[in-house]
Amino acid sequence: MTEERELTVEEQLAALEAERDEHLNDLKRVAAEFENYRKRILRDQEGLVARAHERLVKELLPVLDDLERALAAAEQHEEAKLEEGVRLVHRQLAAALEREGLTEIPIEGKFDPHVHEALLSQPSDQDEGTVIQVLQKGYSLGDRVLRPARVVIAAPKENGGDAGS
Questions:
Q1: Composition of the chain by helix, strand, coil, percent to 5
Q2: What's the pLDDT at 159?
Q3: Which one, of 43, 56, 46, lies nearest residue 141 by Cα?
């Protein structure tokens, strides 16, 4: 009877090893499928980025054409045409970027550190922390700030005897 019992233990061991090998093969297959999926997603993402770049560049080509015309007018000393051409290029570029979702960051009112960068503070009659001058416009694309507005803010009003900052 002992021999019969050992045989069934060996059979059980062989069955468990076969099951283990099957699970290991399944795991390897899933890992390979996941790696292929990851590579495919990466290729798709690169394709989307390339198409987005292509669309933006195609949108900017007329702006480049008009800029070249404005430069040609400048070479011929046609200042009125040059100014008109530069204004046209500016409008076209602003419109193209706006269609892509670019918006100018509003600068009225209080300083907001999420969308403004204070470069200076100056004494002013306005309330402390109010934006009093824009040194460089800021822009956002969707809900992301691409470049904060660089501003001058109102400093606290100076009182006669303060040993201030």
A1: 60, 20, 20
A2: 60
A3: 56
Identify the residue with better confidence: 101 or 40: 40
- Cα–Cα distance for residue pair 90/83, rounded to 1 Å: 11
Tens of pLDDT along 94-126? 888 888 888 999 888 889 999 999 999 898 888
Residue with tokens 């007018």: 73
The total of other beta-carbon atoms located within 10 Å of residue 36's CB is 10
Residue 106: strand, helix, or coil: coil
Q: Is the pTM of this model over 0.85?
A: no
Please state, in angstroms and rounded to a whole number, the distance separating the CA atoms of residues 99 and 59.
10
Q: Give the contacts of 110 (CB within 8 A, at least 6 positions apart).
A: 127, 129, 130, 131
